Amino acid sequence: MESATHTEGSGHPTAGTYLRVFAVLFVITVVEVGVFYVPAFKPLLAPVLLTLSAAKFALVVMFYMHLKQDSKFFTFVFGGPLLLASAVMIGLLFLFGVFVLGG
Amino acid sequence: MRDSATVIFEAPDAVSRLRYWLPVLVLGILACAGDYQQSTLHPASDFAGRLDHLFRGIFWWALGVFVLVEGALLVAIIRFRRRPGGDQPRQVHGHTALEIGWTIAPALILVFIAVPTIRAIFASTGAATPGALRVEVVGHQWWWEFRYPELGITTANELHVPVSRPVALEMQTADVIHSFWVPRLAGKRDVIAGRVNRLAFTADSVGTFLGQCAEYCGESHANMRMRVMVDTDSGFAAWVDRQTAEPPSPDSGSLAFQGRDVFGRSACIGCHMLDGVPVARAQVGPNLSRVGGRATIAGGLFPNDTEHLRRWIANAPAMKPGALMPQMDLAAEDLDAIVAYLQSMK
Amino acid sequence: MSNPPSTGLRSWLTTTDHKRIGTLYFWTAFAFFLIGGLEALIIRAQLAQPDGSLVSADTYNQLFTMHGTTMVFLALMPMTAAFFNWIVPLQIGARDVVFPRLNAFSYWVFLLGGLFMNASFLIGAAPDGGWFGYVNLTGPQYSPGLNIDFWVLGLQILGVASLAAGFNFIVTILNLRAPGLTMMRLPVFSWMTLVTQFLVITAFPVITVALVFLLFDRTFGTNFYVPAAGGDPVLWQHLFWIFGHPEVYILILPAMGIVSEVLPTFSRKPLFGYTVVVYSGVLIGFMGWGVWSHHMFSVGLGPIADSFFAAATMLIAIPTGVKIFNWIATLWGGQIRFTTAMKFAVGFIAMFIIGGLSGVSHASPPSDLQQTDTYYVVAHFHYVLFGGTVLGLFAGMYYWIPKMTGRLLSERLGSWHFWLTFIGMNLTFFPMHFIGLLGMPRRIYTYAPELGLGTMNLVSTIGAFVIGLGTLALVINVLWSRRHGEPAGPDPWGGATLEWSIPSPPPPHNFDVIPTVTSRLPRWTTEHPAAPSAPGSAVHVPPGSWWPLVAAAGLPIMASAVVTKLLALVFLGAAVLVFGIYRWAYEPFEV
Amino acid sequence: MTHATSMGLDSRKLAFWTFIGSECLLFGSLISTYLVYKGQSVVGPYPHEILNIPVTSLSTFDLLASSLWMVLALAAVQRGDMKWAKIWLLGVAIGGLIFLGFQVYEFTSFVHEGLTLQRNLFGASFFLLTGTHGAHVAVGVIWMLTLWVQALRGRLGPQNAITVEIAGLYWHFVDVVWIIIFTLVYLLQ
Ligand code: HEA
Ligand code: HEA
Ligand code: CUA
Ligand SMILES: [Cu+2]
Q1: Do chains B and A touch (3 or more CB pairs under 8 A)?
Q2: B170 and B266: one domain?
Q3: Ligand 2 pocket, C373 CB below 6 A?
Q4: S-S: B148 plus which of B54, B153, C273, C296, CB 3.0-4.6 Å?
């Protein structure tokens, strides 16, 4: 981890990967919007949509923002605060009774 | 250093007696010298007693930690002062066992603090016991309103309750956040717009207990005081009777009679409710129906005597910064009449 | 390679040298400390006896609000920034921080934000909502004046300064370490700086959002905190304390770092349990995120939330205790020299323990129901803030000012300073424990004689003036020694870390040759690392720049729009900001 | 500007990632407020009455696509293919502008339907959340245009691809924030 010269620019994915990722993102978004309009999905809407958007989030961050190949340290610097933000959000939702303990 | 970690766990017998007396002593040295009417250390209700008990427990642990750790610090700085000609000290970098020890020791102490804490939390949620006297508390800038829904009484700044009977407070605010605090009877509970908060206590002795608003609420936060009058059952019943009886009506021709007249045609009725004056129905200021029977006025700030009442009605903001009752332009005789009338409303 | 001008006003306005910026922070923070202290003295004079009448209720409310705000945001945080600036690059063997102009920008934003907030005194409308500005009192309905606008905007500006400095120092510490200076060899002060800055960059956005809501409620008529429209004042409390609690660790961790440097130096022993001290600092910072509601035990959040936050709060006592024990163990078996710096460091430990223990009694919600919003809390936080942070910073001053100026402070005056401060602070703040437990709420400009607390308050007031005398000794000492202090030489104390290997004051480029570090205590194990004879690359000193100052000026101009109701100022300010940033970005500037 | 750094990481990039970390808390607070206040408004319009999923889906696709162009721009700059770099950079800027156009349309139509900042909590928290996001997009557009002008002037190339990479990080972050907002605000009404 110590004193190496920097190694930027190497190892980024190719345009092909970018396009494939985009295709997946596109499809997920279509599914998201589609699911929204299907009444049968109503009870499952929240978990399904949350999972799908988490997947999209992860794809963009991993491939477009290169966290997958880049230094793990970037993941840490970004992921730490992201976790804090999520924890605070969940905490606040509990405190304001948006979720109630035990369902 | 190693001792400090172990001694904490031994509680010799003498110590357990000290356990009660030492905090009483230390915290009470000054407390004995004077009469502290708003003290948290002289609880007079079950609720305040529970809080006090918990605090004393924590205090004891804290004092133990304090003595040991400050002691170790003192020993270190006295024993290891540089001596002329001293060699370079041994270069120690750490000691794993020791470090684990002094991580675990505080954790254990904390268990002894946390367990009673959590028990006390669940015991003091303010849930009303059946048969409790219900009182609605409303905080206003800068005075307290007390309503007894079952008795049909509304009063201000002086809460009357019977001894040994549970009291359940339902608390709200009319404006900003305030905090209800009568230290000898109850810990604080904030009143917050959009919420109803609860407190419950059973007073265990008769007397007058001072309290005041404990959440900063603007200019006269310091002047938002109150008292709780804990009465015997019969005393309380008598008070209730006075509050709910027909409003006294002054003899015609008396000064008070004039006063009622002046009151009825002055701005007062724009803000105040007064049973004896049918047009006075407003609820901006305190209910004045039995104001003559109160010991104090203006958020417990002044004694309820002729002089203070007169000055207050003439110019309230001059006596209480920011008071929301404006300066009144009343002729001297009108003022005297109103004062006489209000004093007759007991 | 044009060297920047080295004297004159222009050289200070355009400087990008971390040392000069550190000096600017130092004097600005020092001045604000005196102002905050003066406010405290007036507060204490008013409270010296019951029914005091020195100042009006309104003035008093402005005084305590500005005292708290000034001390936290304008005195203590910037004073820690003075040390980050001065010392961190030296400790890590760097020639400057990583973004020198951003560093200058931070300082100017801080200065202008502080001036903006204090300008409110000129129109007699200083903030008066308390340092945590609880809504709905601070909303437009109950605080229609400009007072709160100054507070909201001032804090918003200061937030920008802190955030910019945060990114800068994180990258500096991570990326500009001298060869061989691994993270586990990093001096503890630099470590604590790093943790602090992570707290800054995560905590400040939260208060930014809370303040934006308040600003919108006040200026644009939104209803975020308006109960009649469904808004919840408790949301402000949560957002404020989600920021506020990490903030108190932002204030204490740097002082803990300083003490971790001073103790080993003057005991001539390495810090006991370096790794544990570092990790517990990280842990304190992390755990500090999960305890915010302990400021809200009287709100009535319900037993489950209260229990959770109580337990989380108590846990923090563990890593903090670990630090205390390791510090004592560092002293143990040492050869302790009681220089003034060392006295303050030991004083820090002794006083911080008291503040920490009263903190634990707050952490128990039922017990806190009697303590919150009383002088007992005031006692708690002055023991940790004054007994902790301030004493720690004083230790840092006696330790590092010789490095900054090249001259030692007077130990004689220092001794006066220490003893007056130490005795004074205990006189001032110890009685406050009783004052609070015996029933005196905080933030009251007057109290009834019936409470029986006149004598104790008088003692407390006398104590405050004793601290004042002590502070005077410091002021004289700092001013006097600039001319007349004994020359310090590069290493007056026999310190172990890199800053002591270069002249005092250091040359503009700090290190002729960037040292290679082979141990945690480079100067104790190897003394002077064999300096390579040939200098490395040519030492290059970056030129100054006007653009940080220009860009910074845009912010108070924009903020003025709200208090003057001149919309045009928003656009003017934004234009200045954007112009400054573009010139800055396209300025040829080599680090 | 290429110094050896202790982490072996470019300093600006590291700084930028910490900035993004910080932004997580900014948006986290805004989103939390939106969710906490959901259903607390005392007067309408309420979210389900007014949020326009079809239109917003379009702007979502647009922003997603601009992210693709962004990575393509970066790849082009890195290979030194400045012709395509210019095209993609301009594309990103235009994509951002289109997104902003949708937002302007959305905001005005909401205002017409009675939802203003002042109207209710939903309005306040919605406009502040999406408005903050929109402001980020606007800054991004200016940034892209700046890079594009630089490219036109021949001042951009593989040697300073890092500046494009950082701009890209910003752009993608703004995109992922939108992914979250789209789900939590629009789809999960
Ligand atoms: C430097 C700043 C600082 C620091 C470090 C702390 C540290 C702590 N604080 Fe404090 N606090 C403030 C600044 C700080 N605080 C401020 C400014 C306020 C008031 C804000 C306002 O209302 O205006 C406040 C208020 C405050 C409250 C709210 C009180 C109220 O308003 O009702 C609480 C409640 O839990 C609390 C708890 C704690 C605890 C548990 C710690 C712990 O971190 C302390 C840990 C340390 C020790 C415990 C001592 C050393 C440990 C040992 C020797 C080990 C053995 C110990 C045990 C087994 C107990 N603090
Ligand atoms: C952050 C650090 C910090 C520091 C260092 C201090 C330092 C001091 N504080 Fe303060 N204080 C707070 C933070 C701090 N405080 C906060 C956050 C609050 C809560 C505010 C709120 O409720 O909103 C508070 C509140 C507070 C109160 C409660 C007010 C109230 O609730 O009504 C009191 C009362 O005694 C007080 C006293 C003091 C005193 C006597 C000092 C002394 O230690 C000060 C010592 C310094 C000096 C004495 C300076 C010397 C000056 C001179 C010699 C004069 C020269 C001057 C010029 C040339 C300009 N403080
Ligand atoms: Cu009401 Cu303070
Ligand atoms: Cu806290």
Answers
A1: no
A2: no
A3: no
A4: B153
- CB count within 10 Å of CB C122 equals 8
Q: Nearest bound ligand to CA B322?
A: 3
The domain of B159 spans 133-244
What number does the ligand 3 atom closest to the CA of B176 have? Answer: 1
Collapsing DSSP to helix, strand or coil, B225 comes out as: strand
Q: How far apart are CA B174 and CA B188, in angstroms?
A: 18
B297 and B232 in a common domain: no
Residue recorded with tokens 């994509």:
D95
The alpha-carbon gap from A81 to the nearest alpha carbon of chain C, in Å, equals 7
C174, C201, C301 ranked by CB distance to A95: nearest: C301
Q: Is B71 in the pocket of ligand 1 (CB under 6 A)?
A: no
Q: C14-526: which CATH number, 1.20.210.10, 3.40.720.10, 1.20.1540.10, 1.10.3210.10?
A: 1.20.210.10
**Is residue B135 left, alpha or beta, with left meaning phi > 0 and alpha meaning psi from -120 to 50?**
beta
Indicate the number of domains in chain B.
2
Count of beta carbons in the 10 Å neighbourhood of residue C131: 19
Contact C180 A96 (CB under 8 A): no
Nearest C-alpha to atom 40 of ligand 2 is from which residue? C464
Please report whether residue B190 resides in a domain: yes
Find out whether the beta carbon of B324 lies less than 6 Å from any atom of ligand 1: no
Task: Kindly give the distance from the C-alpha atom of residue C378 to the centroid of ligand 2, in angstroms, as a whole number.
Answer: 10
Q: Is residue B273 part of a domain?
A: yes
The structural domains of chain C, with segments of one domain joined by +, span 14-526, 545-591
Cβ–Cβ of C223/D25 closer than 8 Å?
A: no
CA-closest residue to ligand 2 atom 2: C71
Q: Which fold has domain D27-34+46-187?
A: Four Helix Bundle (Hemerythrin (Met), subunit A) (1.20.120)
Please give the distance, rounded to the nearest whole angstrom, from the Cα atom of residue C362 to the centre of ligand 1.
7
Q: Rounded to 5 degrees, what angle do the CA atoms C473, C434, C344 make?
A: 30
B63 CA to centre of own chain: 27
Asked if the Cβ–Cβ distance from C269 to B193 is below 8 Å, we say no
Ligand 1 pocket check for C69: Cβ under 6 Å: no
Q: Which residues of D touch C181 (CB under 8 A)?
A: 6
Which of A74, A82, A95, A96 to probe the C interface (max C CBs under 10 A)?
Answer: A95
The pTM of this model reads 0.94
Interchain contact, D6 vs C177, CB within 8 Å: yes
Cβ–Cβ of A81/C289 closer than 8 Å? no
Smallest Cα–Cα separation from D165: which of C172, A79, A70, C583? A70
Going residue by residue through chain B, which has 346 residues, state the pLDDT in tens, using 9 for 90 and above. Answer: 333 333 333 444 554 555 555 555 555 554 444 579 899 999 999 999 999 999 999 999 999 999 999 999 999 999 999 887 777 888 888 888 898 999 999 999 999 999 999 999 998 887 778 889 999 999 999 999 999 999 999 999 999 999 999 999 999 999 999 999 999 999 999 999 999 999 999 999 999 999 999 999 999 999 999 999 999 999 999 999 999 998 888 888 899 999 999 999 999 999 999 988 989 899 999 999 999 999 999 998 999 999 999 999 999 999 999 999 999 989 999 999 999 999 998 8
**CATH code for position B281:** 2.60.40.420
Beta strands B296-297 and B302-303, pairing class = antiparallel
Q: What are the CA-CA distances from residue B3 to residues A20, A54, B107 (Å)?
A: 66, 53, 17
Give the CA count within 13 Å in the CB-facing half-sphere of B297: 27
Is B168 within 8 Å of B129 (Cβ atoms)?
yes
Residues of A in contact with C242 (CB under 8 A): 88
| Residue A11 forms contact with C (CB below 8 Å) | no
Same domain for B230 and B316: no
Alpha-carbon distance values, C365 to B48, B58, B78, B111, C581 (Å): 13, 12, 38, 15, 49
